């Protein structure tokens, strides 16, 4: 009994140390964002600034184009995809998991093969298609492709496959159709996996640099990654301003994670129980 407690305590200490090690870069980033330029590279490192200032964060939002427009652009795209992508992925996942049709498994296998194609290969076809659709240099060039994710369909389908068929069969006997079963049974049961994928998709979209760089030309349409790059070019070697901009870019990701973390924990817990 004592050995078991000592083992758990030792594991807890080791995991806490590893967690702290992983958090050190973020702690340094936040700490540096409140420092004066002369204090950035002082040794030993000032993890808590002796003379903290807010001017760095103020400059981020007021210098040049500011971050407000970039934030609004990223929020519009990310929130739209965080809601739309899981819903469309859930619809496709339900079809692949519960609706019998000829060639279903072959089509799903072919669908999964799309995960093997590097995104860089699709830039030229996307550019041609977006030009033809007249959505190049608009936010729709990021929103429309982002609504359809192979990973989301695969992830949610695997969860739907774990739901007993007796539940849907009982609903069919009671006269419910596929759409009603999907809305009233599968969606409520899949809140943890939908929330998990929504957080993942929000993170992908918020940090998407390549697509925004290629398909957005107008500076007024820039997202946070492009805005940060533009800001760093303007700020030069002003590291305290760069860290303030990076801190501002991380805040929405932390907020979304803390809001949805209970659903992620529920998902892991339910998986453990099923196992």
TrEMBL record:
Lipid bilayer topology: Multi-pass membrane protein
Chain ranges passing through the membrane: 12-31, 77-96, 108-128, 140-160, 181-200, 241-260
Presence of keyword Transport: yes
Annotated Gene3D superfamilies: MetI-like (1.10.3720.10)
SUPFAM superfamilies: MetI-like
The ABC transmembrane type-1 domain, residue ranges: 71-260
Top-level taxon of origin: Bacteria
One Pfam family in the UniProt entry: BPD_transp_1
Subcellular location per the Swiss-Prot or TrEMBL entry: Cell membrane
Keywords for the protein's UniProt record, in alphabetical order: Cell membrane, Membrane, Transmembrane, Transmembrane helix, Transport
Family: Belongs to the binding-protein-dependent transport system permease family.
Record's protein name: ABC transporter permease subunit
Lineage of the organism: Bacteria, Bacillati, Bacillota, Bacilli, Bacillales
């Amino acid at each position: 009994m004592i050995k078991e407690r000592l083992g758990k305590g030792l594991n807890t200490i080791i995991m806490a140390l590893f967690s702290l090690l992983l958090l050190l870069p973020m702690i340094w980033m936040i700490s540096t964002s409140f420092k004066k330029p002369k204090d950035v590279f002082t040794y030993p490192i000032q993890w808590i600034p002796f003379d903290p200032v807010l001017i760095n964060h103020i400059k981020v939002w007021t210098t040049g184009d500011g971050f407000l427009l970039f934030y609004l652009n990223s929020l519009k795209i990310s929130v739209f995809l965080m809601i739309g992508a899981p819903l469309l992925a859930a619809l496709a996942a339900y079809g692949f998991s519960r609706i019998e049709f000829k060639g279903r498994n072959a089509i799903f296998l072919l669908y999964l093969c799309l995960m093997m194609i590097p995104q860089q290969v699709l830039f030229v076809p996307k550019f041609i298609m977006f030009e033809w659709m007249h959505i190049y240099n608009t936010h729709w060039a990021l929103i429309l492709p982002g609504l359809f994710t192979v990973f989301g369909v695969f992830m949610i389908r695997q969860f739907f496959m774990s739901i007993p068929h007796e539940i849907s069969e009982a609903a069919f006997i009671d006269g419910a159709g596929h759409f009603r079963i999907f809305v009233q049974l599968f969606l409520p049961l899949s809140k943890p996996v939908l929330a998990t994928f929504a957080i993942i998709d929000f993170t992908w979209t918020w940090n998407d640099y390549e697509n925004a760089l290629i398909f957005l030309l107008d500076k007024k349409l820039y997202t946070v990654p492009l805005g940060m790059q533009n800001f760093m070019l303007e700020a030069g070697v002003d590291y305290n301003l760069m860290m303030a901009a990076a801190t501002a870019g991380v805040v929405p990701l932390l907020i979304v994670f803390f809001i949805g973390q209970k659903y992620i924990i529920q998902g892991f817990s339910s998986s453990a129980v099923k196992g």
